[in-house]
Amino acid sequence: MSDKHIYILGIESSCDDTSAAVIKDGILLSNITSSQAVHEAYGGVVPELASRAHQQNIVPVIDRALKLAGIGAEQLSAIAFTRGPGLMGSLLVGVSFAKGLAASLGIPLIDVNHLHGHVLAHFIRTEDDNEPCPEYPFLCLLVSGGNSQIVLVKSYKDMEIIGQTIDDAAGEAIDKCSKIMGLGYPGGPIIDRLARKGNPDAFQFAKPQIKGYDYSFSGLKTSFLYSLRDWLKEDEDFINHHMEDLAASLEKTIVDILMKKLYKASKDLKIKQIAVAGGVSANTGLREAFQEYAKRYGWKIFIPKFSYTTDNAAMVAINGYFKYLDNDFCPISAPAYSRVEV
User: Fold this and answer.
1) Which of 90, 98, 156, 184 fits a disulfide with 322 by CB distance 3.0 to 4.6 angstroms?
2) Which is more confidently placed, 37 or 289?
């Protein structure tokens, strides 16, 4: 190393976003992401297309991240990479590149759990960012297209999933209901935009009764499908006539399900430091619900910047920085993994 500073390069390639970020002594210098529009035509991520796009994007994305940070690769202290969970083909591109680059530079590797990365997005800081970080222990509602979990965060490396979906994730349910309505992919931003103009109390959909802190969204999806089927028999143009109200009612139902379980966990565990993370944390209705619960129950809430809600390498790099300080490295033989067991 050319100086005493700690430079961590983060690499994220778990799904369809290729991202690289550089952190210096815990401060974010760059965060570059290349997204893949090719999947929109298929209504979902196509794994083979995703891995090919990662191969094309990874070199220019990392090169740009280093240049924006104003450093050369030889100044890096370590490379942090998303090891899993995610799409295996996509992960292998990032994992293999991280291993090759680390070996060529003679620096350590740091493996990062993708889900832990989302939780720790609340600790990403730039030079002019003075926002407070959550204090341990805190609860994090992690909601995305693939995950809906309530995580008890005791430290950066000690996280316990106390509740999770037993079937569909919240984001997955939104995407599927959006598809049923004939809208585009991904459904989240479309439903969010329509819901702002609709009446959230126009329609009622099923809310599953699951014990404890676990979630279920498959029943809601079925209720939405069957209700639409019945309404379309009476009015074949029902969706176009009620699109905004349908979106608003769907969003409210999902947000209510998420928040009631989160409130139960907060009350039972007597924890009022509450965070939200993952792609669905960009949803306007969910953000408004967090603000409302904070006022009603005295929560201290943490809502990520929009740029940190989707998959990004900054969350990988900050996780890597904490692990670097603990000398928590991984061997070059460590394989990628598509799933993680609780």
Assistant:
1) 156
2) 289
